[in-house]
């Protein structure tokens, strides 16, 4: 027996449609009670993975275990799961109540018990009082709440969410995002969430699985995924970044000295992304820096000893509500930065000073 | 709790906000497009009026004449034709026979057609195309030719009887031709495509994720079919049944070729009255009774479903 109990284990799963490999020998473990997100662009294999767990697809190779039981060949209706679909998938010919009692009836739950469970779950999703409505009579957000309630009312072993928010408008999406997170923690049901929206993944998950081309790129907490991406793909996929070309001058184990334009900078080897971490002199590298890590100021003075500001010119100012997105021209190159400290004197063409801490720079060997 | 949002209402209120001048303009524009639409419809409206409504009204007029003199001063107007029709047991049994055989044909084509439609709905578009072609192909052959095909198969010494006698299942030939069974076989064969295509269309409209949702909640494929797919395909079943029923009620070629004098369905009786006995007025009354029975049956059948517990499906 393992010390940690995994609610879901996928071992060496491989799936191919014709000659197209959609899952290439993936291993995945989902801890009890966690909200795990499968994140990636379309076609990365995240939905296939979810369908393997749900039982709608069978892997060509490898096995799926749910709560320690091998379910590779168990059909979906015998897996005791809850699932929420992108298109809500409420039964249109049944009222909210009938939709919710569907799974309970199949589990032969007594009538009085059914009512109790349904009332409780409707209260959880804030839909009490709408039991006798048909799905047609509900708004998109309400439909998705009912769909979540329908998945939860049977008290499933696992909750699977297949892009449940992507058909909703931005405001509702935000609202339900928080709601799902709250519900999940309240009930403690192990949840697997599939999305292509990185913001959704980062804000909701305990752990994020970033997938690409049928393989898992990185499994980690949202902060680690964002701040310490392990592969170039993860770095490119999550968040925005500015890139520069550089050349290694020398390495001494504790720091790497690089030539960036006319400048020499020193970077910590921990900031190297990707498989190839050994750098030697004269290696060409790509340097990346996130927009929010670039500082901007009207004056050259800075409180940080490691940061040196350089003159730049504003070429674009976008107000985002909580922050400003600023494009500046630095030595003829356009870089984008994100700032909260906005000087109202700034306008197109203003002279400003920008800079960054070398510790914020990520490196990838070319 | 989240306030109830009624999106339909919102749309209406947005329209109301448009005030004054622009509203009048849209009204004028709407009226213009309406007139343009009417102009385009005029040819077909004239055609339908001249070649369908006028003859129908003329037949209705004829049905109230109880003398052989069709017009002029000698014509006697009365309900006599209708009274004879509803008191003579021959015509009453013909009405019942017509309804009975049509119901059987509906039942047979439903039982045979549903699995085909389901197969089509589950197939890839390519396979679906092939099945559609196969299902619709009998429609490419004249109904007379098709009936003679059945004729050869069902004759007392035809292929089917010969086969059954050869394998020793029966001693003397079954009465397949010139019987109700023969007519039901012919009609359900002829109208099967309508049933299949009507059901398939409603099956295509069912979101495939609904069955997945059913499965995840614990419903076996059979259970999912009975509680989700079947109820949601009711609109297709109803329209398929209505189509096959109305077509069977008014079928002439199949009952006369495959039933003959043994199966006097109403269209055959009407034909005899008009073409053989030259009783135009009585034939007209029979036609209107047939039309009435068909319309009423269809109305109550459809109504029954739309008022049933599955009424939500029909919205």
Description:
- The complex is a heterodimer of chains A (366) and B (315).
- Chain A is built from 8 helices and 20 strands.
- Chain A has a 6-stranded mixed β-sheet with strand order 6-7-8-3-9-10, with helices on both faces. In chain A, strands 13-12-11-14-20 form a 5-stranded antiparallel β-sheet, with no helix packed on it.
- With 366 residues, chain A is of the alpha+beta class.
- Chain A is globular, with a radius of gyration of 25 Å.
- Chain A folds into 2 domains: 6-235, Rossmann fold; 242-365, OB fold (Dihydrolipoamide Acetyltransferase, E2P) (Beta Barrel), CATH 2.40.50.140.
- Chain B is an all-alpha fold and 315 residues long.
- Chain B has one domain (87-314): MetI-like fold (Orthogonal Bundle), CATH 1.10.3720.10.
- Chain B is built from 14 helices and no strands.
- The radius of gyration of chain B is 26 Å and the shape is globular.
- Chain B starts with 6 loop residues before the first helix and ends in a 9-residue tail after the last helix.
- In chain B, 30% of the residues are buried.
- Mean pLDDT of chain B is 88; it is low at 1-20.
- Classes of the chains: A alpha+beta (366), B mainly alpha (315).
- Chain A binds chain B through residues 54-56, 75-83, 85-87, 89-94, 102-103, 106-107, 126, 128-130, 134, 136, 139, 141-142, 150-151, 154, 160, and chain B through 1-2, 4-7, 207, 209-210, 212-221, 223-224, 227-228, 231-232, 310, 312-313, 315.
